[in-house]
Specification:
39% helix; single chain; globular; alpha/beta; five-stranded parallel β-sheet; two-stranded antiparallel sheet
């Protein structure tokens, strides 16, 4: 079993545009509600089982946190659970929001 890989904001955006990846945002509820990458899955301890049932282990996953630090541990955890292609996005959501559009506010 391999470790997770690092991925840039630009490479994440390209994979997302090609519908080749799921974004797993691990930030807290308030931060996720205030703004997140369009289509991101809010991955929490409470939603982990649902996430693992919803997505196949060969589905590429990019884990996003605030600045790209916490996502590394979460990405490694997903690898240990059996996900085959897992990335930690360098710079996190804070880097994404300065470069690319995102969903702001709670649209639910």
């Amino acid at each position: 079993m391999s470790d997770f890989q690092h991925i840039s904001v630009a490479d994440t955006a390209k994979l997302l545009a090609d519908n080749k990846v799921v974004i797993a945002d691990i930030r807290d509820e308030g931060s996720f509600a205030a703004g997140h990458i369009d289509g991101a899955y809010h991955l929490t301890n409470g939603s982990l089982n649902s996430f693992m049932q919803q997505f196949e282990f060969d589905q590429p996953v990019v884990v996003v946190c605030y600045h790209g630090n916490s996502s590394q541990g979460a990405a490694q955890y997903l690898v240990q659970q059996g996900f085959e292609q897992v990335y930690s996005m360098d710079g996190g959501f804070e880097s994404w929001r300065t470069q690319l559009p995102f969903v702001s506010g709670d649209s639910a």
